[in-house]
Amino acid sequence: xxxxxxxxxxxxxxxxxxxxxxxxxNEFEKVGPISSVEYGPIVVNYTTLYLLKNATTMHELYxxxxxxxxxxxxxxxxxxxxxxxxxxxxxxxxxxxDFIKILDNGDIKFNEEIKDINQINHILNY
Length: 126
Prior knowledge:
Blueprint: H1 49-54, H2 66-82, E1 86-89, E2 92-95, E3 98-102, E4 108-110, E5 113-115, H3 117-125
Antiparallel strand pairs: 1-2, 2-3, 3-4, 4-5
Helix pairs in contact: 2-3
C-alpha cells in the first residue's frame, strides 16, 4: 500500500511512494477509564491491547516491553499497599525517593545497584 493511494488523508509532497500499512476495523471496543497523571496526555508511540484494557493511568500505556510491565505491576502493587507515590519517568520509575530503571539487557537498576524484582519487592516492602 503506497501512501499516495490513501484517499482519506491528504498526502505530503514527495511521500506518495512511501509504504504504509492500512488497518480496517469492523468495530471498536471501549476501554478505560484511563486518567492523565502529572504530565498530561501525550502521543502514544506503542501500546498493547493488554495495556489498554488494564491501564488506569496514561503512563501505564507507555510501558516499553514485558520486563517493564512486570516491574511496573510489582511497583504499582507496593505503591498502593504502602501509600507510596509511584511516578513513571522517561528513563524509569520513581517509587518514593527510589529510582528503578530497566536496562537494555533486561537487568533492573535500583538506586544504581543491579537487583532482581524479588529483591526490590523485599526492600520496598520492609
